[in-house]
Fold each of these.
Amino acid sequence: MKRQTKHSSQEQEQLSEVGAQQTSPLEFASAKELLQHDAGQTVVPPEIAERLARSIQNEPKPARSWWRRFLDR
Amino acid sequence: MELLVSELSVEQEQPVQPRVPLEPEEFARLYEEHSRAIYYLALRFLGDPQKAEDATHDVFLKVYRKFNEFRGESSLRTWLYRITINHCHNLRQSWQNRNLVTTADESVWENTAGPAESPLRVLETKELGERIQKALDGLSAEYRLLLLLVADAELSYDEIAELTKQSADAVRGKLHRARKAFAVLFQQTA
């Protein structure tokens, strides 16, 4: 049986539709929508949380309140 | 009615109790909830990922130190934004003093015929961030800030007005021009 190597015109039509879908532009109704999309895609670098944890460790401990000192007696 | 009014005024006059310092778990939750909004504002306002990282770190450290000064008169998000905006303004001011920043002229956009309300089309999402940054960089700091704040669904026009020290009507007017200017600049980056 001869293998079919070429796409039928119907298949080619379907493929081009898929191609068109893949390259179809994203559309944003407004600058607000575009920036909201951008914000949603933004990943906060994990280094910030790590640096913050180190910085907070070096912070002086807050003084205990009078009631906590009283309760701890 | 009189009674109601006097009750309300008595309620308003009660001093707001300052908060106690944050426990580490509370601070972690606060960071989890708000860090993306704060980092995003710093990133797009300053236009430099490394500086935005530093700014976000510094802002949250300030929040940790000063949390007992938060009196709940505004939303926590608004308070965080206020600290971030002040921090970023100070940074930009120091760059300006060293002539590292040029300010855009807002009047350029007053009479520009631009696609203010027409859709913004994007073919390639890979470089979308760069295009957005380039367009924002072409705006004045004030327009840039207004666009970034209004993109946060948690903020009302009144809160934006309070944060930027102007009336809500002024915010609306400036936002209209800022959107128009942004759309023109964004199309130019294609």
Amino acid sequence: MRGAVNRMKMLAGGAAMAAFVFAATPSHALDITKMTLSNGATLLVSEQHQLPMVTVMVEFDAGTRRDPKGKEGLAELTARCLSQGTKELTAPEFDQKVDFMGSEVGVATERDYSTAGMTTLTKYQDDTLKLLAGILTEPGLRDADIERKRAEQVAEIKAAEEQPGYTADVEFVKDLFGDSPYGHPGAGYSDSVAKISDDDVRGFYHDHYKLGGAIIAVAGDVKADEVKVSLEKELAGLTGTVAPQAEPPPIAVPPGLHVKLIDRDVAQANIIMGSGGVARSNPDFYRLKVMNYILGGGGFSSRLVKIVRSEHGLAYSVDSGFEPGKFQGAFTIGLQTKNQSSNQAIDLILQQIREIQEKPVSDAELDGAKKYLVGSFPLNIERQSAIASFMIQVEFYGLGLDYADQYPKLIGSVTKDEVLAVAKKYLHPDAMIVVAVANQSDAKIKTAQMEKAADGASAQ
Amino acid sequence: MRITIFGNHRRLVSTAALGTLLCIAAAAPVRAGMADAVKAQTLPNGLHVLVLENHKAPLATFNVFYRVGSRNEQFGKTGLSHLCEHLMFKGTKKLGPEEFSQIIQQHGGEDNAFTEEDFTDYFETINKDHLDVPITLEADRMANFEPKDFDKEKHVVLEERRLRTDDNPEDALDEMVRAQAFVAHPYHWPVIGWFHDVDGLTLADAMAYHKIYYSPQNALIVAVGDFNGDQVLKEISEAFGGIKNGAKPPAVTEVEPAQEGTRHVEMQHAANLPAFEEGYHVPNLASADSFPLEIASEILSDGQSSRLYKKLVVEKQMVVDIGAGYDMTTFDPNLFVVSAQMRPGVTAAATEAEVEKEIAAMRDTPVGEEELQKAKNLEQAQFVFGQDSVMREAEMLGVYQMLGDYHLVDKYIDGIDKVTAADVQRVMKTYLVASNMTEGVLVPTGVLPHGGEGISSGELR
């Protein structure tokens, strides 16, 4: 195999990418059957009989937004510990059974929820489902396994911090969201994870892995009514609901560009800048989708790529995006450029933000954005895992089972005036958080204090 | 090593846990008997075309492979294949820079390209009703290459190198290990090229390179999707049939001499954790040893029940992550790689000693029947899972055709099934030995910890 990695991690990675799926749009409906289990869980099934395989994803209200203050990383650690066997099976016994079938079983966290998932050949669906149900209803959660996964997570965080982009993101998220549920990296910090006790993990499982109000999505070679019977049998015991979480106050970045400069021996400055965005339920979502595509979300069709990459050759990657969630998310622009180009790149970006706030976009830009957003939908629900995560998002964010049919209309009705209005309302070139991990002596990022100091020096 | 024209979008860390460690995809082989369903044609100008109907979803993928990669480059001009890939997006006699991608996007499609050691693949995935659009555009850039903004694009590529390699400890280490393992063969240099080489490339270099390698006789088209195969063959033939060939590309003749003794390389880099990478010279698909090597890599590191994971991650708890990788589909013999990133406080030397114990156990004792069967079951399952994407099907057909025959796809599972415990032991004894190993160790010089010194705050202008 090219690029050998542990398969569990691939599965986790697949699930972690899920939030991207609803960025795209349907052009044809997906047949979804909706049912309810006796414990209150919503079951969504999309029958896909072309291949002898099945994908199941179970959503729990156990995302990283549920992390307690000081114990950031608890949701992620709990998810990792859950796949370490059951009361009956030790972790190695569990792994042996999963691998012998060639199946994939794992639990992954996102900001808003966690997903326990499996992918298996149809012929092993019953046995694999039993294993998945086992770790959800009777997880082992043994002291030794928790200890190992905790140390592993701390080490992985230290490894991630080697990536300048990861460090920039962490600092940005802290500064923008502060104490709110989104204000920390999903994996936590090395010191906060180290402080999580075995009982914290068992308590988090106990409080958050409940199926009343949860969503189960199945895509694959199954019959909807038959899979309902199996799930009822295996998962009915997971009853109860999770207490709702209070919505955090709106994000308010005070006027000014608040810069955090992190000095590191790197060849490139890693810059992220942004402000408060929207929640997924915000009715401006679709207008923002179109506006952002034109500004920096649309690859080679976007203004930021055209200006910063193509015209000035300053970056390989530059983009902008909203990350709407259950709560208000962030708006960010990110790029990497050689240290010495930092100021020039920041200037070009600020100029582009102002431009899209001042002048209406062109007819061609509006038309191109709509055609891409509407037309590219089927590309994003091709694979079973993508279909399953799509169904979970549709249900979690209350988009409606006919979302696939509605989306073209929601995008299609956006006007140039609306694009201009949302650019004015949601972009704040004069009030943003800016984080730069760079070799600061080369980057020489100009801050107000430095300019003042420089002015003072030249006046004397 | 695969380098793309356009990077993935970022996600904030609050939404994706530890993305850098979690998101790597392996290309699994494709559906059994699929080669029989392929329609193949060779146009009079030598262009090979494969089309395969797949009615799973209302979309289609269109791939143009060129048999050119870093393997075809010369000392002093490394990175030319990858730069050429970038320039393919910078315009033709008819189109301006990036117009190619913009037109695809306006039709609801996505396009990208990647360069490897052996080949370059340009691909579009698009609604089945718009397949004519990539067909027309790809024919245009094969015939009418005329890139603009050369210097700007070169700077973009240099930024890409800083991002992927220079500021990425594991990639930087991999580059050094390969440069040490290959002395004579072009696998010696990285796909993206050495920084100074790339900086010195000229538009004339790229134009000459395109003329030699971007001809119909050196290309392969693979289309997979929800369409009528005969109709698509006809459209492709009309669009590409008139494109003329230049001189035949020169063959790559370098052969890597046998390695006689362990080679060591050390790299100091801004990092928190030590890491190592071991590369062993191994044969490719042309050898009967390729399938046993594939099984060996499965047994060593596929799944949490694999030997290296169980020993190093679970039992000894020495590493953050460990993996063994083998790709039998490289054009020339390449490396079987074992790599790991250590936990804090653990040395690479101690970990490598444990890894060697595991490798030695597989040299000394045949693997058990159940373990062998588990590896085969994993391969079979991944074979099916891999068919869940038209893009992956197209890529595998393309790779096997470039290796000689797309029918080889159908023989994959057979080859895996026939592997015996004695075969695995034989290849371990032959190839996974110290004298055939190049070992690279990353010595971390540290990065500033979060919240620590070196952070300053202020207001931007």
Amino acid sequence: MTHLGDRLAALADGELDHRERDRALAHVAHCDACRAELEDQRAVKALLAAAGAPHPRPDTVAALHDLALPGGPLPPRARTMPQGALVPDLPHPGRRPRGARRDSRRPGDRVRSRLGVATAGAFSVAGLVLGTAFVAGGAQPSSSVVPPAAELSVEHGRTSGAVTVGDPAVGLMTTFDPAATTRR
Amino acid sequence: MRRLAPFAGAAGVLGSCALVAVLLVHAGQAPARDAAPGPGDTARDRGPQPAVDPAARRLLQRAAAAPSSVSYRGTQYVSAWASGRSSSHVLEVEHSPVRGTTWRAPAGAGSGGHVVSSAPDAAEPSLLAAGAATLLARHYSLVAGEAGARVAGRDTDVVVARRPGAGAAAAPVARFWVDRETGLALRREVYDRSGRVVRASAFVDLSVGAVEPSAEAAVPAEDTGRAWAHTLDDEGVDRLRRHGWACPWSLPGPLPLVDARRGGHDRAIVHLSYADGIASVSVFQQRGSLDPDRLDGYRRATIGGHGVWQRDEVPRTVVWASGGTVFTLVGDAPERTVDRAVDALHDGAPAGGGIMERLGRGLDRVGSWFNPAG
């Protein structure tokens, strides 16, 4: 029994025409190995599709702004009062601003911590990509191949004529063989 | 979560370092182009340096450049001999520097009326900075000055290419008859090690000048006359190697890699060209397994202990599968050179089961999900 090989990816991607899809699905119906491989490929594709575009949380964006200004805090934000006037949201001397979390760490620790999170995130993405590639590259290609002899003969003749001195017709001789002509 | 962040960061950095180390080790396995001899490339292959007569080099450079400025029409024969078989054709040739060349088998021959075309820039070699004449001068000693016979009624100068060395080792490999007036190569003969002619082609009549395309030589509309357009440079070849394709920088002979490109449906076929200016070998590779039942005109054979399928034509075609890849070698080269090339590629073919090959295949496949046209 010949397994589906590379056609599994095409089946998962919906790239097969009706006839090929019917044949592939008929094979999957009674082949456990191909069915399992198909499930894996569909799962990976679903994972990639569900990931979508990244939407960072607002506090992550603010943290990244902090990273861009390591020398000090951000300028005070303006806050709208009930009357509509704008007043600066200045902290009281000796008190933490209302709503601020307790954080006794030094600014350098915070930067390193955020850098670590960013690095871990980047590595996670790389791991996801490599993991996906590892799974997708797992199946040894088993599709049946027949070299297109006539096309390869002409291709050889044309490149051969460019890299040898003399007669390009020699490299194209095979294409004038009667058997080759009838094979076209 | 915040307490875990430094550890996650450290793990990320360590993991990244490990990944970079793996990639660097893998990159280190790719042989550098200049330092890497091909499989089976021995010291004998790189033996005595060729002695090149400047006049001979100029004649061959003129012969290589002549088709870009001279139009002609004529009749030529092309013959080739190999062990126990031969092939011979008489072809009508039309050439124009603008339109390129067409060859047509005259009516009545077995392939009568069959037309093959080649555009003026049919295949610019992607890995060969200098021309074919320079490539030839790197591998063979060149001598000019032999009395030239008349070819198709025209005066010629003769250039002899010999194997580098002295005495019997320096036997002639090829002779070229170069037209004194136009520089066209009017006749070529290639010899085996015992001095027998194995390739011969010559014009039996030739008219030089403006050529109007004849109706008989009309090229089918789908024939571009060009080799596959997707060429690869050194970096592209390295990338292929990392993805598990067999891409030696040279084959025994030695035959250096002079051109690389991809083509066929979805560019699924890799084509590597090896040449020394006289002999040329094309190596085509496709992912998959070989189905011998669907091979037409091939017979089973053994080369270097490896089972192959080959077609008894000239140029010789050999097909085999190794490591999940189907190889097709088309060789316009001595039998022994083709045998050694097949043997070297068989031995040097990636097993196909390594982690980097698997990752390479996977990245190709994932890339195709996002860019089906690429």
Amino acid sequence: MNGIHDMGGMHGMGPIQVREDERPFHAEWEGRAWGLIRAAGPFGPARRRNFRYEHEVLPPAQYLQMQYYERFIKLLVDRLMTAKLLTQAELDSGRADPASPKSQPRVTPAMIAEQATRRRSLRRDDLRIQPGFTVGQDVRARNINPVGHTRLPRYMRGHRGTIVTDHGIFDFQDTDADGYALPARPQHVYTVSFTARELWGETANARDTVHAELWEDYLERA
Amino acid sequence: MANEADTPVGRRKFLSGAAAGTAGIVAASNMGSAEQANQQTREQGQGQAAPSDVALRVKALESILVEKGMVDRATIDAVIETYESKIGPRNGASVVARAWVDEAYRKRLLADGTAAIAELGYGGAQGEHMVVVENTPAVHNLVVCTLCSCYPWPVLGLPPTWYKSAPYRSRAVIDPRGVLREFGVTLAEDVQVRVWDSTAEIRYLVLPERPPGTERMTEEQLAALVTRDAMVGVAKVSASRGAAA
């Protein structure tokens, strides 16, 4: 979707807060929030929307205003409420309804280390699909405007680039208009190099490039 | 949320209040600086007696989910411990230092980042497919995720606030040289800037240039020089860590 999250190339967002030490959490609540998100993550509706899409459909003003971990917490709460595992009354009072059913944790402390080191690859090394493009070939990012989740940034659409790497076959991640996964369409993913001038015009440095990894469905012959 | 900090949390709707408060702030201020204002509010809030509104909401949610039996507090502690002491930019720094002292390793790292990083014991979630890009006197690499906040967790840990912020995500692709100047790095016009927008499943690590004057340093000493920012591509490595911001 053409949402506020797709912000590559936008102006007016202000200066970057460059001085920041390497600690992962800068306030206690950030660590608690991240831990809570990981610990309660498996609870929610049986049919899951794409989690990136869940962020993308937040109202733009809210998306910009909320801190990263705050956004995740809001989405966790939304999911739990949708699945009727949490009520507004509980949120208002800060206490669990004594009549609410008791659950068992689905994530235990022992599972954390394993979760962090587990590979969850979307690459489909089990499949053989002929690539539609070859390294060195010129391509154009298609001018498409899907309303669901997509990984083709707006600033690349319609622009011409060159295939520099074929990363193999990956499951396609675009969703339907409601954020639910489409039938699997595994396809090649390529790194495509665009010149800064192709994307941003004559004032860009003539040497500079911008690369992205794009699924084959996003590309057409130049 | 600056304008809600002094409102008693118990009397307001818990999370639904966020939307109303947001609209007020955004209407009255520059949207782009909202995240920065948040950050400043948080920093000012640290060490003060009154916790922020969001801190109270997170604490309440934790209590509710623990009470319901859905969450074990020890699991939250384990997550924090993992990201504070096991997974972070020191992992990436050891990869960089190895590449600086071991030419064969450097070649393997650039040819197959995932496998070479796994040699040092690092890998997993958000680092399944690693590509390492090398800075040279002629090429400077910069990593961003314009659509969200994709970042190579196994080697760099969780992303810093600026990496997730609208100012960085919006500008890194259209004005990388301006972004670099903001971080204190000024590149000559004839240096090529390559920006890597992490749009799919590849995660990037920048192999910075080894600074001059470090020829006698051990691998461990070299690793101590390598900053997180240098491995994202917004800084260079200095022979004295204090000068490399």
